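[step 3/7] fold_predict: job queued, chain A
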Amino acid sequence: MKIHRLSAEDALASLRSRREGLSRAEAAARLREYGENRVERLARPPWYRLLAKEFSHLFAIILWLAAGLAFFSEWREPGQGMAALGWAVLGVIAVNGLFSFWQEYRAEAVLAKLEALLPKEVTVLREGERQRLPASQLVPGDVVLLREGDEVPADCRVVEAFGVRANMAAVTGESLPKGRDAEPSTADSLLDAKNVLLAGTSILAGEALAVAFATGRHTEFGRIARLSQSADERRSPLYLEIARLSRWVGLL
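[step 4/7] structure written:
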């Protein structure tokens, strides 16, 4: 059953946790099992390989050949204006390559902005003791203490709530703050459940005790981060049409 439909006690039990939090040994074991609570960075080529790729695909090669032929023609028959054409083609290569490179490279900037929405540290209960630790060390089952002004470090099920209102805009796009409580929800989606706080959102008012049920790449925020890095893998119809045209021009 989805965790937002369970009572607070059942939600804790489903995660093999309790209101006093995990033991330090259990937390260490879960950290090894689930990994650190970080935004996942997909493997990407270094920047110079991305740049080189934009100047070495089929369409760029055809333009390089066209520029070379223009300069060769100018050398054979000076004064025909072919040098100007060659420089114009080189300009097209440079503008197209740099623009395409900028589009690919800015995924890194987007990821940095997403990472800035997550807290660096978080207050948790471990064996009943309040402890401040790096947010990257948070694991599923950790009981988190949140108050006004805090960023939510992971997807959490609210266990206790005292006048909590959360800013969900980073994940759902909603501009108005949403109230949160610990009662079971009948919503179909986590995004609509009033007893869930999602990673990347923030607490605008009140205090809450919540148990983390998803960390790192398993959170809704982590899914958004993955999509932001892999969006360029899906080629647009215009890109596919240019590629087809490039093959025909190359063949001719």
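[step 5/7] annotate
The mean pLDDT is 85.
Strands lie at 121-126, 129-134, 143-147, 155-167, 178-180, 196-197, 202-214.
exit 0
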